[in-house]
Amino acid sequence: MATLDYQKIILDSSYWLKEKVFPLWLREAVNLESGVFCENLSFDGKAQVSSRRALVQARQIYAFSEASKLGLVDPIALKKLIHASTNSFIKSYSLASGAFVHSVDTEGQHLDCDLDLYTQAFALFGLAHGYEITHDEAFKKAALKLAHYLLEYRQHHTGGFTEIKNDQVFFQSNPHMHLFEASIVWSKVDQDPVWNRISENVSELCVEKFIDSSTGLLAESFDENWNPNRENGKFIFEPGHHYEWSWLFFHYHQLKGTHNIISEKLFLKAEKYGLSSNHELVFDEVWSDGTIRKRSSRFWPQCERVKSAIVLGEGLIADRALQSLMKNFLLMDQGLWKDTILETGLFVDLPVKASSLYHIINAISEYQKYRSGALTGGLDKNRHLKFPKKTE
């Protein structure tokens, strides 16, 4: 595996964020007075008028907070924006119960009032970053109210929390992953024991139920007893989520000062089953017998591979993953990106999703933080990862 110039990758990605992405998104994708973010940009860089999901507002609070910490944008101006955005987020999406609705219409009125767990997780996540930047106690108060709502009304007797969509109850790992993420962030900025309570709940459920004991693969959907939903004896897993859980467990155990045996296992499973034959792209979905279910490659799993590889010390893999992301998905002469490559090599004709900025700035930030200390050989200094021959 040839060595890439990781310092150039850092410079190029930083330049793209600072000179292309944030000038465009500050100009076109947010109301600087109200702090409301748009959902999408067109490929000519113009905001598209549409309903607005809570998760996008929360992710953008994070993305712009991270830009402030990375020195990509004036921190004083961004602090004012983040304060306005977080205030607007609570005002527009929160309910008396502490929960947050899924979306509002173009006038800011409640549109989709589903209280899906995915949205609640990102509400906690956005509030954490708003609080971290501004230290506004009202943001922590809203987060604690939401946390207690989840613990009182959404816990299931078999473990974890329920997902509710269109008045139907589902059991899924993905929203728990983001709840795990949010509780980890809160644990870093606040000492309330509720955050550790939630993260421990999700960690135990993941280890005991989400990860199938026979295959070591992390399933996506389950029955009410947390048994993976199967078709012809197989269940679906997403390599992107393996990388993401791997990265989260790294930070969880680092925070707690405990031994981490999960991250490497999940990373290696994704590397073994989830990559294209040239190891350049991460596939979207794979069956638990190792056959590819969906050969498309979305933007976000590529970002998660960068994050997992770099925190595990896999410098060369992270180099190639980020270079692949920049080559295949990012429009480096613009502050834009493409979302999905089909098996044919063509892109799906979709607008530029604001929700994806959360993924890319997170990947670049983690890469910059850990790359200089990352190994150039395997998960320890004495070996390289072994890639099995692919049969496709």
Topology summary:
Blueprint (H helix, E strand, L loop, with lengths): L5 H23 L11 E2 L5 E2 L3 E2 H16 L5 H19 L9 E2 L5 E3 L4 H18 L2 H18 L8 E3 L2 E5 H17 L3 H18 L10 E2 L13 E2 L1 H18 L5 H12 L11 E3 L4 E3 L2 E2 H13 L3 H14 L1 E2 L4 E2 L2 E2 L10 E2 L3 H14 L22
Antiparallel strand pairs: 1-2, 1-16, 3-4, 4-5, 6-7, 7-8, 9-10, 10-11, 12-15, 13-14
Helix pairs in contact: 1-12, 2-3, 2-4, 2-12, 3-4, 4-5, 4-6, 6-7, 6-8, 8-9, 8-10, 10-11, 10-12
Outline the structure in words.
This protein is mainly alpha-helical and 392 residues long. The protein has two domains: 1-30 and 236-378, Glycosyltransferase (Alpha/alpha barrel), CATH 1.50.10.10; 50-210, Glycosyltransferase (Alpha/alpha barrel), CATH 1.50.10.10. Helix content is 51%, strand content 10%. It has twelve helices and 16 strands. The chain has a three-stranded antiparallel beta sheet with strand order 2-1-16, with no helix packed on it. Strands 3-4-5 form a three-stranded antiparallel beta sheet. Strand 6 and strand 7 (168-172) form a beta hairpin. The two termini are 22 Å apart.
Entry summary:
With 392 residues, the chain is mainly α. The protein has helices at 6-28, 54-69, 75-93, 117-134, 137-154, 173-189, 193-210, 239-256, 262-273, 299-311, 315-328, 357-370, and strands at 40-41, 47-48, 52-53, 103-104, 110-112, 163-165, 168-172, 221-222, 236-237, 285-287, 292-294, 297-298, 330-331, 336-337, 340-341, 352-353.
Query: What is the domain tally?
Result: 2
The SSE order reads HEEEHHEEHHEEHHEEHHEEEHHEEEEH
The rounded Rg comes to: 20 Å
Distance between the termini: 22 Å
Strands of the largest sheet, in order across it? 2-1-16
Strand content: 5-15%
CATH class of the largest domain: Mainly Alpha
The count of DSSP E runs of length 2 or more, i.e. the number of strands, is 16
Helix-and-strand structural type: mainly alpha
The portion of residues assigned to helices is: 40-55%
Mean pLDDT metric:
93
**How is the quaternary structure best described?**
single chain
Shape descriptor: globular
CATH topology-level fold name of the largest domain: Glycosyltransferase
Largest sheet: 3 strands, antiparallel
